[in-house]
Write a structure and sequence with these properties.
6-stranded mixed β-sheet; Beta-Lactamase; 3 domains; 3-stranded mixed β-sheet; 18 helices; about 475 residues
C-alpha cells in the first residue's frame, strides 16, 4: 500500500501566523528556503520530514496536528454533498476536492452550510402545508445538525471540559468511588439523590431539591446520570462559557449542545483521560476489561476511546459509530481518514450490520475502503431495556475501529492475517460516492461513473459500471 504524502499547507500557515512570524523568518527557523516554504503552504509540495522534525524540536508543536481530521472530514462531507442529484453531470475529481478542503477550508465549510440551507428549503417546500404561516422558517441548519457539526469539527474533544471532568474524578482516587463522590457533591450543593421506580433515567425536582434516578437502570447508567447532573449543577459557568464560544444560531441548538456538553463531562469523569488511556494501553484496548475496571458500559468505553485526542497525549485514532436496526447512523465520530455519511445509513457490507444477528458477541472485520485505506473494526449489538416487563427494548449496534497500522495495539487483532490482501473486505461510505464496480449490495449507481445497460445480459446489477 502506497504511503500517503502529507499535504498540510493550511495547518503550516496557521502555525506560522499563530507564532507571529513572516514567511522568511519561519523558513529560516525550519531550515528550508523561502520558495520551498511558500510551496508547502500552498500545498504545491508535501511537508517534508525535515520540516516535521523542526516543528517539533524548534516550536514544540504536536506534529500529529498536521494530519488531524479537519481536512478529511471536509473531504468526506463535500463528496457526499456532491453526490446529491442536484449536481448532475461530471463531478470534480477527488484531488480537486482534497485541494479545496486543505487550501480553502473556510470556503469548504461555507459550501457545506449552503447545501444544508438548500436541503432544508427543499424539505420545507415538500411539506408546504406545514411550513405556511411559520415565522421562524429560515434557511439555517437544524439545531440538531448544528450541534452535531460542532462536535464533529471539534474532533469530539472539548479540552476545558475534559480537564475539568478529569480534575473532578481525581478526587475519587479510584473508579469505584466516583459514584459516591457524585452523590456527595450533589448533596453539598443542596440536592438529595433518590433512586425511584420510574421509566425516566433522571428527573430533577428543583422545588424539593431532589434528584430522582431510575432504580431500574443499570449501575453504569445511574452513575453517568449522576455525573451529568454534577456538570449541570456544579459546572454551569464552564458549560455556558463553552456555548458562548460556539455561537450557535438558535436557542434550541444552544440547549441541545448544553446537554451534549454535560454528557461529555459525565463520560470524561467516569473515564478520566490519563487513567483511562493508561489502562486502555495496558489491556490493549479490550473493551470488556475496561468496562469492568471503570464500571462503565461497552458503548461508553467505545465512545470514550474515540475522543482521546488531547494535544500532546493522543491515543489511537479510532472511529466510532452507532446504528439502529434500520441501518440509520445515530452516533458517529471519526479521528481517522474514514468519514461516515452525514445523511442515511452506512455501507451494508460493514460488520456493524451483522452484529444484530449475533447478540453478545464481538465481530471482527478487516476492511478496505475505495481509497486503499485498510481498517480493523470491532462490532457488537447492544440492547437498552427500560427494566420492566412490557417496556420496549431499544436495540443498536456499535462499531469501533482504527487504521490497520495500529492493529498491534488492539487485542482484537490477534490471530488475524493482516498481510494478506484477500483478508480485507471491500467496504464504502455511501453507494452514491462509492466507485466500486462489482459490489453485490449496491443500492444506487455511483454518480462519478458512466453506466451501460445491456438488454442481453443480466449480472448482479441491472447495469454495468464503467
Amino acid at each position: 500500500m502506497a504511503i500517503q504524502k502529507l499535504y498540510a499547507g493550511a495547518k503550516l500557515r496557521e502555525q506560522r501566523l499563530k507564532l507571529g512570524l513572516k514567511q522568511k523568518e519561519f523558513a529560516a527557523r525550519l531550515g528550508v528556503s523561502l520558495p520551498y516554504l511558500n510551496q508547502m503552504e500552498n500545498n504545491n509540495r508535501p511537508v517534508s520530514t525535515t520540516v516535521v522534525l523542526a516543528l517539533a524540536s524548534e516550536f514544540g508543536m504536536d506534529v500529529t496536528e498536521l494530519s488531524a481530521g479537519d481536512s478529511e472530514r471536509l473531504v468526506g462531507d463535500i463528496q457526499e454533498i456532491l453526490s446529491d442529484p442536484l449536481f448532475g453531470g461530471e463531478l470534480p475529481p477527488l484531488a480537486d476536492v482534497r485541494l479545496t478542503a486543505s487550501n480553502a477550508p473556510g470556503l469548504a465549510r461555507a459550501f457545506i452550510a449552503l447545501h444544508q440551507s438548500y436541503r432544508q428549503a427543499h424539505e420545507r417546500l415538500a411539506s408546504l402545508d406545514e411550513a405556511l404561516g411559520r415565522e421562524d422558517a429560515r434557511s439555517t441548519p437544524s439545531p440538531w445538525e448544528e450541534v452535531r457539526d460542532f462536535f464533529h469539527y471539534c474532533d469530539n474533544y472539548i479540552d476545558a471540559i475534559d480537564r475539568a471532568a478529569e480534575h473532578f474524578a481525581d478526587r475519587a482516587e479510584t473508579p469505584a468511588n466516583i459514584r459516591a463522590l457524585a452523590i456527595n457533591t450533589l448533596a453539598a450543593g443542596g440536592l438529595t439523590v433518590a433512586f425511584s421506580e420510574m421509566d425516566a433515567l433522571r428527573l430533577l425536582d428543583p422545588a424539593k431539591g431532589v434528584l430522582h434516578i431510575s432504580a431500574r437502570a443499570p449501575l453504569e447508567t445511574q452513575t453517568f446520570q449522576l455525573l451529568l447532573q454534577v456538570a449541570l449543577s456544579q459546572h454551569n459557568t464552564l458549560l455556558e462559557a463553552t456555548l458562548d464560544l460556539a455561537r450557535f444560531h438558535s436557542t434550541a441548538a444552544r440547549d441541545i449542545a448544553k446537554i451534549g456538553l454535560a454528557n461529555y463531562f459525565a463520560g470524561a469523569a467516569l473515564l478520566p483521560y490519563r487513567a483511562f488511556q493508561a489502562q486502555a494501553e495496558a489491556c490493549r484496548h479490550d473493551l470488556e476489561v475496561l468496562a469492568q475496571h471503570f464500571g462503565a458500559s461497552i458503548e461508553q468505553i467505545a465512545h470514550r476511546l474515540s475522543t482521546l485526542q488531547r494535544p500532546g497525549a493522543k491515543g489511537v485514532p479510532f472511529f466510532f459509530v452507532r446504528v439502529d436496526q434500520a441501518g440509520t447512523i445515530t452516533k458517529r465520530h471519526s479521528a481517522t481518514r474514514l468519514q461516515f455519511a452525514r445523511f442515511g445509513g452506512a455501507c451494508p457490507l460493514w460488520n456493524v450490520h451483522r452484529a444484530f444477528e449475533t447478540p453478545g458477541q464481538f465481530l471482527r472485520q478487516l476492511a478496505e475502503t475505495p481509497d486503499g485505506m485498510r481498517y480493523i473494526s470491532i462490532a457488537c449489538d447492544i440492547s437498552k431495556s427500560a427494566g420492566r416487563f412490557g417496556a420496549p427494548v431499544r436495540r443498536f449496534a456499535i462499531a469501533l475501529g482504527c487504521e490497520v497500522q495500529h492493529a498491534g495495539q488492539l487485542v482484537y487483532a490477534d490471530g488475524l492475517d493482516l498481510n494478506h490482501h484477500k483478508a480485507f473486505e471491500p467496504i464504502g461510505i455511501s453507494c452514491r460516492i462509492c466507485t466500486r464496480k462489482d459490489c453485490h449490495q449496491r443500492s444506487v449507481p455511483p454518480l462519478e461513473r458512466n453506466l451501460t445497460v445491456d438488454p442481453d445480459r443480466r449480472g448482479i446489477l441491472p447495469y454495468r459500471v464503467d
